[in-house]
Amino acid sequence: AQKVTQAQTEISVVEKEDVTLDCVYETRDTTYYLFWYKQPPSGELVFLIRRNSFDEQNEISGRYSWNFQKSTSSFNFTITASQVVDSAVYFCALSDYSGGSNYKLTFGKGTLLTVNP
Amino acid sequence: DGGITQSPKYLFRKEGQNVTLSCEQNLNHDAMYWYRQDPGQGLRLIYYSQIVNDFQKGDIAEGYSVSREKKESFPLTVTSAQKNPTAFYLCASSIGLANYGYTFGSGTRLTVV
């Protein structure tokens, strides 16, 4: 069965520090998709990135970067020069074809990031 | 602007009462989902619907019911059979396959007293 593990429950950093959020996944499928979502205090989950299993290139978007390594089943998320507005809960999620269909995302338990001024 | 609307944002009910949470989307998405979020538990799938007039149980469907009479609407009823209904409820939608990810509503925080 598919599973997503975010071992870091809470992380606290000081503004301008770099921070990496870990995500380890389990799946038996060769075709799958990985996601990161941000949940600010307002509650709505905001999509950050989607990556398919055939594309291992790292991606950078402004201060955000993602490192996808199939060899270790990891999809880690790094925020460079963190800011107070980055404070949120971050979820990693997996979509695969378990059971013959691709109908749902499986989420990790989330990492609460607090960036202090 | 397209999106998902959940209402109300906060809801209070007495124990033993059924309560219905609203979820409406104007994204023309086929699939809709209900998740429950508890502190430290992440997001757990309650029900999902891939097409109108069809829905399936998720991982924690006991004590909940849904309907999908219109493409745009996927209301969730929390029944008195749900033992711990106090939680944050999130509705989401997707084009069809979860490959494309979800669009989420802003959630409803239900408190049962």
Architecture overview:
The complex is a heterodimer of chains A (117) and B (113). In chain A, strands 2, 5, 6, 10, 11 and 12 form a 6-stranded mixed β-sheet that branches. Chain A is built from no helices and 12 strands. The mean pLDDT of chain A is 93. Chain A has 117 residues and is an all-beta fold. Chain B is built from no helices and 11 strands. In chain B, strands 2, 4, 5, 6, 9, 10 and 11 form a 7-stranded mixed β-sheet that branches. Classes of the chains: A mainly beta (117), B mainly beta (113). Chains A and B meet through strand 5, strand 6 and strand 10 of A and strand 4, strand 5, strand 9 and strand 10 of B.
The overall average pLDDT of chain A, rounded, is 93
Cα(first) to Cα(last) distance of chain B is 36 Å
Shape of chain B: globular
Which regions of chain B are unreliable across 5 or more consecutive residues at pLDDT < 50?
A: none
Précis, in short:
Chain A is mainly beta and 117 residues long.
Lay out the secondary structure.
The complex is a heterodimer of chains A (117) and B (113).
Chain A: E1 3-5, E2 10-14, E3 19-21, E4 24-26, E5 33-39, E6 46-52, E7 59-61, E8 64-69, E9 74-79, E10 88-95, E11 106-107, E12 111-116
Chain B: E1 4-7, E2 10-13, E3 19-25, E4 31-38, E5 42-51, E6 54-57, E7 64-66, E8 76-78, E9 87-94, E10 103-104, E11 108-112
Task: Name some characteristics of this structure.
heterodimer; A: 117 residues; mainly beta; 6-stranded mixed sheet; B: 113 residues; 51% strand
